[in-house]
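Shipment paperwork, digital attachment
Item: protein structure file
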Amino acid sequence: MKKKIFNILWYWNCILSCILTITAPQAVIAKNKCSTFVTNINVQDGFGSQFQNIIASVFYAEANNVPFFYTPFTSMEHNYHNDPDFLQKKEHLINFLGNFELSTDVKCDLKINSAKDFMDKNIQLFESSNTIRKIKEIFRSNKNREDFFSSEQFHIAVHIRRPNPHDSRIEGTNMADELFLEIINSLRNVYKEKKPIFHIFSQGNLDQFNAFIQPDIKLHLNDDIEFTFSAMVLADALVTSPSSLSYTAALISNGDIYYSPFWHSPLSSWVSNEELLLNKRGPADKDENQETSIRAILPKSLTFDNKTGKIIIPEYIKHIKLDIGLSYSAPMSQHWLMEEQNLWVFGFEPNQRSAESILNGASKILPSHGEPLEKRFINERFFLIPCALGISSDHMMPFFVTADCGCCSLYKPKELELEKMIQVPVFNLEDFFNIFPFDTHPVIDYIKIDAQGADLDIVKSAGKYLAQRIVFITVEAENDAYENTHNSSQEIDNYLYSQGFQRYTSALTGDPTYINLNFVDYARDNSIIIYQQG
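Attachment content:
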């Protein structure tokens, strides 16, 4: 009786805390003696709907800070040929086995909630979640895009949902051919410089698709789910139907998405097909500098050379430092600028709250903290760049914000209380160096990195410039407090040694510091000053 009462109380507490409406049995929250966790529950449905539910269940677990355990497929519609390996092929397709612990290893009592509804109501949180990043990564880890598309062309997948023997739902199968052809014509205009190839994925007989037999259109009719779904995910752009299959492919795609209205919420970056047809434009029409160039987010106080496109730095500035990870007050930048009158500092900080604190003139929170950056330096000799740095090819990524702004990270904290997840711009350090005027200022004196587990990623993102242009670098070796990091002291040593650096012992730096062996004489002759504490 006590156990029953406990389970009831726990159940309602979960509902109230998550503000979750219970509808269909799509996710399972389970409680046993050891832990509370979430798993997906299998229902009799097609692959797209089931995989969508799995993704939603992983997200529900992350959003509620409980572990996710995967329940493998047990049944699935659309096995038209009674393939005995049908489910096994779907497991290989999503690639969850070996990447998530299995719920079958845990004995527990179950309570039922709806994961899909939760994700629909929290779609913006989903966009910036670790869930989407992890599932994208594991899905691609056992696939080669070149097995689906040539790299020389721009490929647009178009899903045309048509009736099938296992689904009597008419909605979604009745989008007219004329509408799809109009969408394709609009996209020809949007991507005209890329000369796109269109790939139609559908079911039926060839004579039902005569309208689509055109030089730049390839038909893929009645292909297996493995090829169809993977191609939709990996295409450069995807046109969805009102269907869980293409909707779910769009969720984990890195391409441009053109969305047909459906039961489930679109991501903010998607363009509705109605908007496409009304405006005759799409993501490709955006100014590339708006999102994909680091120059677009640099302070307006910086000027650029019209011929080279490089930052203009005054001749009297003799030293350059990078401060990566500023917390709320940029105390290292303050110390450096007070010591050197001929110094410029470029500071990188993705947390908007911290960036605003610095720009508004931060006040010291604790006596032990360093002196906050003075406003007189901002946009005079200190320039704040509001982005994260890393090795990702994505220009927007989830960023985990904790109550302690000095502990926020691109990696999810293991124990620190998560305040929220936000979406932040991410660039390679090499992107910044590509617009830095090395012709007038040949080296970067010093880089200090304090990025909560992402430090080595940032070091690697410097590319060729690391060995060629950096004199000193200090890196925080934090590898235990965040999930899935590769940032141990040994890993940092190994990489920097391979790039021509060696450990440098200084009483003025608290974290591991390295000197480029190509610049030992330069550092001495030019009186380079380094400092890092905290």
